[in-house]
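Subject: YD repeat-containing protein

B.,
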Amino acid sequence: MSETPLIAFPEVPPVDSDNSLTPITTDTEYKITDVDNTTVKIDINGTEITFKSLSGSRGLMQEFQATQVKYPGGKIISMTYTPISQNGAVAGYRVTGISDNLGNKLTINRLNMNGSDTSTLGKQLQGAISSVETNANNLNKQTATYTYEIQNVTLQGSSKPYAKLVKAVSTGNGTEDYLYTDYVHKGLFNNSSNSVYGVTLPLLSTLKKGGETILNWQTTSDQIKTYKNLDYDYASLIYKESVSGGTLTLNGPAEKAKSFTETFVINHSGENILYDSSSTFSCLKQNGLPLKKIVFAKKIRRLTSFTDKNGYLTNLAYDVNNRLITRTQAASTSIE
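Prediction pasted inline below.
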């Protein structure tokens, strides 16, 4: 599967590029315009993403890579790609450069893109990111290098190599180590006849920075628990999934004997995600008051309102670039 953004469209007769082309969708949030036979533009709430067929052609099912993103405020991000070769033929494309119209640039270096390393490990890691570097300021260049390990995963009767990122060394964050635990995914088939459920997959379980543990994760079929060190304090974050949403439980960073817990019930309601708390204690506060209810808008991925334990509602409003412009309390008293 390609690592880069892509979209597939069926073959259509060639057309001339024209800025006056009518979008082929009428949705108010998403607009898709077929510019020409190798270019498609998607507008999402004013953000325009350009997809191109880098092969220069268009088949019945064709991969289109995202090559440019234009934001309403004028910022433009461009992506460049390099073909990945297998057995002398182009097998796809990987993003190797990201830049904007403000002079910022990232160079992404990848392993064995031309397929010259025919060893088992070379083939398994082909296309993986080996390092990333900034090019905007040569006096303060930022770099990051990555190390991988291979773990074989048996899926539908065949063993497939899975590349695990185990170490990152960067000028900004120093050395980070990533540890994994084996997790049995019971929604996947182990054998070729699709009769045996259960595939063992590596899941990230520990993040270390400079040798010190920063975070741990424990995962079950419907729950993720995040913590640093339960032997030191009882602080943790637990998300438990359900059909309608789930629960988010926060345990405060106190001694176990004095620990307090708050649970938010998560529900999806139309275009919003609601977090409701009935706990006596509160881990989350706003303006010094513990929170009872939090509302996030799915469309803009922003907090749009919160209610404290005293029942006071505060609404947040944003501009077209999703920047906070007002924060208004329930009594129509603007405080920002």
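Confidence is low (pLDDT under 50) at residues 4-19, 332-336.

T.
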